[in-house]
């Protein structure tokens, strides 16, 4: 819904402060004077606590887990401290999504009477998602039963004020309709630019493997970009998994709290292997080299100015193409295209922005020098950096 409002120019920018739409919102920031933006809420980098302050009755009554109103929540937040400065880390926050949903509904969807009706008429019904509900008052029949990890039946929950973060019941067929709309933006309610913004990395973990974007988690499996949204509630779990460059995706729903996230990861790894690099890069202009052995190896940054600046680059052969891998670096690879025996050119994989790679830009040249007794290059230059072979 946020990106739909952005495309309709009802929202100016994801970097607008939440207080622009919610002047009464206030929370303690002991770190600095920074305010929370819409983008930070969507990417879970706001610093807000994980759950809504639902009062003493939280989780004691499954028929209304969070029986509070907006006034109560905002009053409680005034004495709540952020967990970290906005934009500096990741902390999953259902509270943030609930606040944003209620704020945007009050600003743009009030004529529908409830945020549920707003979502149904603006998103779900236009996509044909007629077997999806946002409350517990419909489709009690023909619904899969939910089970906790100990095998005990889990009752249906009404999440009250926090329901925008939890309360959607759907079918695999309906979730597939949403997936197809995202994978094919030309036929969707948001265009390709909005889709790119949705998948733009906002926070990269130190392991350089896990990336958060607004609403999604991104990882690279077998050099394929895999974008996932997974979630669990007591007794159920679900995930939607996208591989945009392959125009491929799948959905998983299960009765069982922790089943889907792990299963989604396992399936993603196997499917990405099947796609492999031939599918990912088939339309890239990569000229192969007739003598790849002279380039393959591990290279260390020759650094005379600081002991703190370290980098290792390996050049490998994968499905007939030279690939440059960087440690540390995000993402972990780019391709190398042959120009001359001593000159190769960096070629970015699809979906990688020009800011994404720490060393080297798209179409930048790498110059190799000096062959050793085995006929392998001893070093190469990338911009102002010199890397020497270590093996």
From TrEMBL:
Q: Give all residue intervals belonging to the Beta-lactamase-related domain.
A: 5-258
Q: Where does the record place a coiled coil?
A: none
Give the highest taxon in the source lineage: Eukaryota
One Pfam family recorded for the sequence: Beta-lactamase
Kindly give the InterPro entries that the UniProt entry links to this protein: Beta-lactam-related, Beta-lactam/transpept-like, Beta-lactamase-like_AB/R
Which family does this protein fall into?
Belongs to the beta-lactamase family.
Q: Which PANTHER family match?
A: BETA-LACTAMASE-LIKE 1-RELATED, PENICILLIN-BINDING PROTEIN
Q: What is this protein called?
A: Beta-lactamase-related domain-containing protein
In its UniProt entry, the species of origin is given as: Paramuricea clavata (Red gorgonian)
């Amino acid at each position: 819904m946020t990106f739909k409002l952005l495309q309709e120019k009802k929202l100016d920018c994801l970097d607008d402060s939440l207080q622009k739409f919610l002047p009464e919102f206030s929370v303690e920031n002991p770190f600095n004077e920074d305010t929370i933006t819409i983008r930070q809420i969507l990417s879970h980098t706001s610093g807000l606590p994980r759950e809504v302050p639902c009062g003493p009755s939280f989780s004691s009554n499954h028929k209304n887990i969070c029986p509070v109103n907006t006034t109560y929540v905002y009053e409680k937040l005034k004495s709540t401290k952020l967990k970290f400065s906005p934009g500096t880390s990741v902390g999953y926050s259902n509270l943030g999504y609930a606040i944003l949903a209620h704020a945007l509904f009050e600003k743009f969807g009030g004529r529908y009477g409830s945020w549920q009706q707003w979502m149904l008429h603006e998103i779900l019904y236009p996509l044909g998602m007629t077997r999806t509900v946002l409350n517990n008052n419909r489709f009690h029949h023909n619904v899969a039963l939910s089970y906790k990890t100990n095998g005990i039946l889990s009752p249906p929950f009404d999440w009250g004020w926090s329901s925008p973060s939890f309360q959607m019941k759907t079918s695999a067929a309906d979730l597939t309709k949403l997936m197809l709309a995202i994978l094919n933006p030309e036929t969707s309610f948001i265009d390709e630019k909005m889709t790119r913004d949705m998948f733009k990395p906002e926070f990269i973990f130190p392991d350089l493997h896990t990336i958060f974007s607004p609403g999604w988690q991104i990882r690279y499996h077998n050099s394929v970009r895999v974008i996932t949204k997974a979630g669990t509630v007591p007794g159920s779990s679900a995930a939607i998994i996208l591989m945009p460059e392959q125009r491929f995706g799948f959905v998983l729903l299960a009765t069982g709290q922790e089943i889907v996230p792990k299963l989604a990861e396992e399936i993603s790894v196997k499917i990405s292997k099947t796609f492999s690099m031939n599918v990912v890069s088939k339309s890239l202009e990569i000229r192969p080299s007739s003598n790849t052995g002279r380039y393959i190896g591990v290279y260390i940054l020759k650094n005379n100015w600081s002991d703190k600046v370290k980098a290792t680059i390996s050049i490998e052969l994968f499905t007939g193409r030279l690939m440059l891998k960087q440690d540390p670096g995000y993402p972990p690879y780019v391709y190398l295209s042959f120009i001359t025996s001593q000159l190769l050119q960096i070629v970015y994989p699809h979906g990688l922005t020009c800011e994404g790679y720490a060393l080297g830009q798209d179409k930048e040249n790498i110059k190799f020098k000096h062959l050793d007794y085995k006929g392998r290059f001893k070093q190469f230059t990338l911009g102002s950096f010199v890397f020497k072979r270590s093996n």
